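User: Can you predict the 3D structure for this chain?
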Amino acid sequence: MSSTSGTVEGESRVDDDGINNANPFNRRVIEEFRANGGRVGGPFEGTSLLLLTTRGAKSGLPRTTPAVYLPDPSPGGDRLVVFASNGGSEKAPGWYHNLVRDPAVVVEVGTERYEARATPVDRSEHDELWRRQIERDPDFAEFRARAPRTIPVIALTRAGQSTESAG
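Assistant: Here is the predicted structure, written as structure tokens:
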């Protein structure tokens, strides 16, 4: 049993504190984000960070994770873009598998919380969004180079807005 999450490896449940993330580092980031109106320090200080809540693909339970995002105004409304890089790992992060199964997500940015739909960006936009993200955060170039896979780029569109991409 983990002292920070109260879960046994492989056990699925919703945390009483609403954080719903067994990773101690992520739990601290989520707590700090929510306590400070979306601002965090440490390695994420000054970074565009959001909280993404997906429904577990296996458990069906809500799972919240911090994610770096790229603001991307698109026709019909603003959207946020996240990169399923997992730090350049050979496997996509769990949140990506969750949203593939159920694209209805909840996004928290600053003090705002809203429902959104997660959709992979069109192939025609993929490289341009990567270029823009690497320009904003050069660490993403290393993640992309290290990953032995095409890293999915996901658009988060506020529920009720068009999910069609320009291009």
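The CA atoms of residues 14 and 163 lie 30 Å apart. The first strand starts at residue 49 and ends at 55.
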